[in-house]
Amino acid sequence: MMTLFGDPAIWLPWTFAALMGLSILIYVVLDGFDLGVGLLMPLADDDEKDRLVASIGPFWDANETWLVLAIGILLVAFPVAHGVILTALYLPVAVMLIGLILRGVSFEFRAKAPLSQKPGWNAAFFAGSLMASLSQGFMLGMYVMGLTWTWAHVGFALLTAAFLTVGYSFIGAAWLILKTDGILQHKAVVWAKGGIWGMILGIGAISLATPFVSARIFDKWFTFPEILYLSPLPILSAALVGYLWWKLRRLPMENDRFAWSPFVAATALFTLSFLGMAYSFYPYVVPEQLTIYEAASAPESLLIILAGTVFVLPAILGYTVLSYTIFRGKATELRYD
């Protein structure tokens, strides 16, 4: 313990890796649900699409701030890893950025365009959400496979892209169960019942592939006593999946009881999956190539960056909490001036 907090070359890279991981996790959950809502647009009626957009309207730009923070930490704290990862994933990163731009533009324009053009912007919003979701899933699959481009790895990444996209649609549906009522809430429950299978299959596929990526990860999963450290994660995940399926069969309930529970359970499931990946790949930031300690900037630089992070991170977190507090409650249709 003294070594961990006594040597800046040890605790500073660990601290920034933890901050980057936290930023990625918050982004995946928060932007995951608003990407998921965008993916559900084609399933909603024309008069329901405004409520879908209204349910994420106050939050979507704040959600994407966490992605900027995560990439910023990767760039300044682990510059070597930043170069390796973004070089290997240049094409899917470009697709993701185009998708996010298309989402932002269509989000603003659909509220101001003439009614005859609104379906086109709705389609653009869906397309942007689909591009961002698929590219993120593809990047996740390639990262798990060690960032090497082979036909087998690309095939696995494409599979992961499809599963993550369906998983995003599930957490988006869970968000709509929380934020809507009436017929739309009933539809969201149906969408969640379908989307949960994509999330289960995605978690299963990554869980099956990860231990076979390297002998080191295999040993962390299946040797004693390491297997005891990991065992709570699959047990809790299975319990959450069972709870979600049981609860979705009973929603919506009278007086909107437990409408929050699918979203909270989905968030917990995403968190457990992320913790499992973090446990598996630590201490590597580039799988089996660079550890966080090898890729980190000089301790003197990290200390300066940490001083700035002490101010930036609470500001982002405070703004996020404030926006969710102010705009709590059910989403209503957008109002046009």
Q: Can you give keywords for this protein?
A:
single chain, 337 residues, mainly alpha, two-stranded antiparallel sheet, 2 strands
SSE order and pairing:
Blueprint: H1 2-6, H2 8-39, H3 46-56, H4 60-77, H5 79-88, H6 90-110, H7 118-144, H8 151-179, H9 182-209, H10 215-222, H11 226-230, H12 232-248, H13 261-281, E1 284-286, E2 290-291, H14 292-295, H15 299-326
Antiparallel strand pairs: 1-2
Report on this model:
The protein contains 15 helices and 2 strands. With 337 residues, the chain is an all-alpha fold. It has one domain (12-326). A two-stranded antiparallel sheet has the order 1-2. Helix 2 runs antiparallel to helix 13 (261-281) and helix 7 packs across helix 8. The mean pLDDT is 86.
Helix content: over 70%
Counting structural domains, the number is: 1
Strand order of the largest sheet: 1-2
- In the predicted model, the low-confidence regions spanning at least 5 consecutive residues are none
In short:
This protein is an all-alpha fold and 337 residues long. It has 15 helices and two strands. Strands 1-2 form a two-stranded antiparallel sheet.
